[in-house]
Design a protein that fits this description.
With 119 residues, this protein is mainly alpha-helical. Helix content is 74%, strand content 0%. It is built from five helices and no strands. The protein has helices at 3-24, 31-55, 58-70, 72-88, 97-107. The chain is extended and about 65 Å long. The relative contact order is 0.10. The model has no long low-confidence stretch (mean pLDDT 84).
């Protein structure tokens, strides 16, 4: 995926954000613009999934899909970071399940342990 494709994805994302802002302000875009926005979103999602298939092993993809059910925003952030790393060439080889688990553990916020003592 080259710089032109990345720029196209960014342009489409900005257009989607602009249209969402118009909708929030009460300005409804025409149906053709909504169809174009949906098509652009579908194309962007398809490209992202193709990149994820190329950089993750099947086990790692399965783990992300399972995690998506409970923490969808976390998975979106991880996928965006992985796609960015892959596009910049900083990701060497495929990411297996163990490496993905380690990455998720680093990203996940620390849990606080609480103990209640009774007197």
């Amino acid at each position: 995926m080259g710089g032109d494709e990345l720029e196209e994805i960014r342009r489409r994302k900005m257009e989607m954000l602009r249209q969402q802002q118009q909708q929030q302000q009460g300005q409804m875009p025409d149906p053709q613009a909504a169809a174009q926005q949906e098509q652009a979103r579908a194309e962007m999602e398809a490209k992202k999934q193709a990149i994820m298939r190329s950089i993750l092993t099947p086990e790692a993809r399965e783990r992300l899909n399972t995690l998506r059910m409970t923490k969808p925003e976390m998975v979106e952030n991880v996928e965006a970071q992985l796609v960015g790393l892959a596009q910049s060439g900083r990701l060497q080889g495929k990411l297996d399940d163990a490496k993905l688990r380690n990455l998720l553990m680093q990203i996940q916020p620390k849990k606080r342990e609480m103990s209640i003592t009774r007197k």
